Amino acid sequence: xxxxxxxxxxxxxxxxxxxxxxxxxxxxxxxxxxxxxxxxxxxxxxxxxxxxxxxxxxxxxxxxxxxxxxxxxxxxxxxxxxxxxxxxxxxxxxxxxxxxxxxxxxxxxxxxxxxxxxxxxxxxxxxxxxxxxxxxxxxxxxxxxxxxxxxxxxxxxxxxxxxxxxxxxxxxxxxxxxxxxxxxxxxxxxxxxxxxxxxxxxxxxxxxxxxxxxxxxxxxxxxxxxxxxxxxxxxx
Length: 236
What we know:
This protein is an alpha/beta fold. Helices cover 36% and strands 19% of the residues. The chain has a domain of 163 residues: Vaccinia Virus protein VP39 (Rossmann fold), CATH 3.40.50. It is built from 8 helices and 7 strands; from the N terminus they run H-H-H-E-H-E-H-E-E-H-E-H-H-E-E. Pfam families: Methyltransf_25.
């Protein structure tokens, strides 16, 4: 994270004290050199899980950031692919990397699409939405899809309560709550606000039929359960 290519501690501090949009505008030029970018292993596992359901027509990457999701949409979709994000800085980086894609700057809680896409994906974005905001996000994706369209995104298994990772993520969420209680504008980024059962309920309420498949390429936990699952929400 603190390599010459990545952001400095000072830059990360300035970002954390900004709004979500401004923070990502600032981080955009160095974002792909941070651990915040979705790992290629997750992208590859998602592509492998989606391939049997394709090929697809037109594809949408929701909260595209610097466009990492475009790497799997291109081989899966036969039509145009589009990335949508509200950060102009992130979209500028994505456009430079994928000049053949289409890009839309918009708040994904009010997506400006209707019945245009056969596949929508999203990576690492749910933590930027409070639970009360997820219904609007999922309703917008539902509208953006054609009938029988698919919305897919990976979701990690919760770490065991006895693990260091569990307490690290809990500590991060608590620190973020304190930060947002005493500092404006808020920076919404939480790790514990989108468990699978809550996400499934919100997707079902939006009209989707929801299933999941294990991302076995990501390995298994000590109890044998998968470290990650791919949520498949179908517009029926």
